[in-house]
Design brief:
By secondary structure, the protein is an alpha/beta fold. Helices cover 51% and strands 15% of the residues. The protein is built from 13 helices and eight strands. A hairpin with a 2-residue loop joins strand 1 and strand 2. Helix 2 crosses helix 5, helix 10 packs across helix 11 and helix 11 runs parallel beside helix 13. The protein starts with a helix and ends in an 8-residue tail after the last strand.
Length: 308
């Protein structure tokens, strides 16, 4: 392997380049990162690699130094790396540490799809969940689900139906589970069901009703928040919620719920009576069979933790 400094100096002399440029190239030739790379990959490089790769060596060192100095290069957010290509040196541009962190954060956000959920849930973390006595069962149930789901994501896993008074942390726990799953590479969808029901009703007669429904019912992990908070029309109950639950039961897809109602109350006081006042116990029972198949009921107790 020829001497880096000598080869580049010969090249400069042959091409009758300016003194300043020669000085720059002489500095580049002595760069420790360049010489170390060449020594490491010597067996894969051509004998005259230094002469033939002079321009790439210069590009690498100058662009790298710009990045270190905090200056922009032509590939913003990226930094140069030496590589071997066809027995010569070449330069590849890879994401900087900052760019990688931004990309990772973006990918994480993309794995948690939220529909009509408050922005505050984005900060929900299991580490910050106060798993005191009244909420310990729900916390342990969430942890058990995460472990079993991640061990066997294609098997059936019964999720949680979180019930309890307003403000005890049901939505927060769902969002924290979603974040943990996203961190571990799994996608979730959180939907505030009363708001979603309004969105579906407003979409009647327009394109997209079927697409909206498909996106919810086919989510790998679905979290239906605040079910029972508002009165349900027969259409929302049967043709929206019923379709979602039927599909997810048949496909054995994990489905969480949160509600101020217990399962018994949801059936008797909410699903059974339509907005028109019709009493339809069989339809309510049918829906509850699917909910009980998909999730087990866990009661969360405690005081209202939301700001007053």
């Amino acid at each position: 392997m020829e001497d880096v400094s000598k080869s580049l100096q010969d090249l400069m002399n042959q091409r009758n380049l300016t003194k300043n440029y020669q000085q720059l190239m002489a500095k580049v030739a002595k760069d420790p990162e360049v010489t170390a790379f060449i020594q490491t990959h010597q067996a894969d490089l051509a004998p005259d690699v230094l002469t033939r790769s002079a321009a790439k060596i210069y590009e690498f060192v100058t662009e790298r130094d710009k990045v270190k100095a905090g200056k922009d290069i032509f590939a913003t957010g990226y930094e140069p790396r030496l590589i071997v290509a066809d027995h010569l040196l070449d330069v590849a541009y890879v994401p900087t540490q900052g760019t990688q962190e931004k990309q990772a954060a973006q990918q994480l956000r993309q794995r948690v799809r939220s529909i009509a959920m408050p922005k505050s849930i984005r900060a929900a973390r299991l580490d910050n969940f106060d798993n005191d006595g009244p909420r310990m069962e729900a916390f342990l149930g969430a942890m058990d689900f995460i472990e079993s789901y991640e061990d066997h994501p294609h098997q059936r896993h019964q999720a949680l139906y979180l019930t309890g008074n307003f403000g005890v942390g049901k939505t927060y726990l769902l969002a924290a589970v979603a974040h943990q799953l996203a961190t571990d590479g799994y996608s979730t969808t959180l939907v505030h069901f009363p708001s979603f029901a309004v969105e579906m009703k407003n979409a009647i007669g327009k394109d997209g009703v079927g697409d909206k429904l498909d996106a919810i019912k086919k989510a790998p992990v679905l979290m239906i928040d605040d079910i029972g908070a508002d009165a349900m029309s027969a259409w929302i109950r049967d043709d929206v919620l019923g379709v979602i639950l039927e599909y997810r039961m048949q496909e054995e897809l994990p489905t969480f719920f949160s509600s101020n109602f217990s399962m018994a109350q949801l059936e008797k006081d909410h699903l059974r009576i339509s907005t028109r006042g019709d009493d339809e116990p069989l339809k309510a029972q049918r829906l509850m069979q699917r909910i009980r198949f998909l999730a087990r009921e866990v009661t969360m107790l405690g005081t209202n933790r939301r700001p007053q």
